[in-house]
Amino acid sequence: MKELFPAKQVNGFVFSLLLTVVALSVYFMDMSFELGMTILLITAFIQAGVQLIIFMHAGESKDKSTIYTSLFYSIFIALVTIFGSLLAMVWGYM
Amino acid sequence: MKIDNTQPLEYSTEQNEMNILGFWIFLGAEIMLFATLFTTYFIYADRTGSGPTGADIFEITPVLIETFLLLTSSFTIGLAVNAMRLQRKNATIAFLAVTLLLGAAFLSVEIYEFMHYYHVGAGLQVSAFTGMLLTTLGTHGAHVTFGLFWGLFILMQIKKDGFNPRTANKTFIFSLYWHFLDVMWIFIFSFIYLKGMM
C-alpha cells in the first residue's frame, strides 16, 4: 500500500494545497493590489513548477532538453503576448 | 518493434518516446492558446459596460470547491502513473477512476457556476468582460470534458488489454494532459477569480 503513495507526490500535493491557502490570503486579508498580485504571481508560478517537475516528470527522459526548450519558449511567448498587449492597450493609457 | 526494458513501459519503444515528446510540444501550443485568452480577458476585465463586474458575480465557495477537486484529481492521476510503473493494474484503474470522478464533480460545479452567472445577468453577450470570462472558463471546461471521455476510453483499454507499450504510453500522455489542465486552472483561479475578488 505504501508504495502506491510515494512521499514525493504526497508532499507535492500537500505543498500545492499550502500554496493555494497562501494565495487565498489575498481574498481574506486586506492588502494593496500590488502586494496581492505579487503574492498571486509567486504562488501560481511555484505551483506550476511543482506540477511540471513532480507530477509531469518533465526532466526524466533523454528528451529533457528538448522538452524544456519548447516549454520555456512557449512560456516566453505567452508572457510577451500577455504583458506586451497589456502595455500597448491598457497600461500605456493610464 | 524494439522494446527497451531499461525504461518504464511508456518510454519502451522509439515511437513511444516520440509520442511523449510530441505531446509536450502540443502542450506548448496549448500554453499559447490560453495565453491569448488570458491576454484578451485582462484587457477587457474592466470593460463591464452596463453589466456586472467580477466582484459582483464571483463566489468564493464554488471556486474553492473546483480548485480543491482539480488539485486532488491531478494528485490521483500522478498516483495512477506511479501505480502503472509498479505494474499494479487494479490500483492504476482505481486511481484513474477516482481522477475521472473528481473531474466530473469539477465539471458539475462549473456548470452550476455558469447557470449562476446566467441568472445574475452575466451572459455571453452582456459585456466584453462577461464574453471573455465565459470564453476562457469555457475553453478550460471543454478541455476537461474532452479529457473525461479520453480518460474513460483509456481506462477501458487498460481493463481489457492490461499494460503494454501502447496502453502505458496512452496513460502517461493522458496524465500529462490532465496535469496541464490543473496548471491552467491555477492561473484561472489566481488571475481571474482571486484578482477579481481582491
From TrEMBL, chain A:
Class in the EC hierarchy, top level: oxidoreductase
EC number in record: 1.10.3.-
Transmembrane segments: 12-29, 35-59, 71-93
UniProt-annotated location(s): Cell membrane
Keywords: Cell membrane, Membrane, Oxidoreductase, Transmembrane, Transmembrane helix
Catalytic activity annotation: 2 a quinol + O2 = 2 a quinone + 2 H2O
Database matches in Pfam families: COX4_pro
An annotated Gene Ontology molecular function: cytochrome bo3 ubiquinol oxidase activity
UniProt topology in membrane: Multi-pass membrane protein
GO biological process: aerobic electron transport chain; ATP synthesis coupled electron transport; electron transport coupled proton transport
Annotated GO CC locations: cytochrome o ubiquinol oxidase complex; plasma membrane
InterPro entries reported in the protein's UniProt record: Cyt_c_oxidase_su4_prok, Cytochrome_c_oxidase_bac_sub4, QoxD
Function: Catalyzes quinol oxidation with the concomitant reduction of oxygen to water.
Family indicated by similarity: Belongs to the cytochrome c oxidase bacterial subunit 4 family.
Name of the protein in question: Quinol oxidase subunit 4
Gene: qoxD
UniProtKB/TrEMBL annotation, chain B:
Principal subcellular localisation of the protein: membrane
GO molecular function: cytochrome-c oxidase activity; oxidoreductase activity
Domain Heme-copper oxidase subunit III family profile: residue ranges: 1-197
GO annotation terms (biological process): aerobic electron transport chain
Keyword Cell membrane attributed: yes
Membrane topology: Multi-pass membrane protein
Places the protein is found: Cell membrane
Pfam (any one): COX3
Gene Ontology cellular-component terms listed: plasma membrane
Signal peptide: none
Keywords, sorted A to Z: Cell membrane, Membrane, Oxidoreductase, Transmembrane, Transmembrane helix
Superkingdom of this protein's organism: Bacteria
Annotated transmembrane regions: 21-43, 63-81, 93-112, 132-155, 176-194
Family affiliation: Belongs to the cytochrome c oxidase subunit 3 family.
Identification of the protein by name: Cytochrome o ubiquinol oxidase subunit III
Biological source species: Oceanobacillus chungangensis
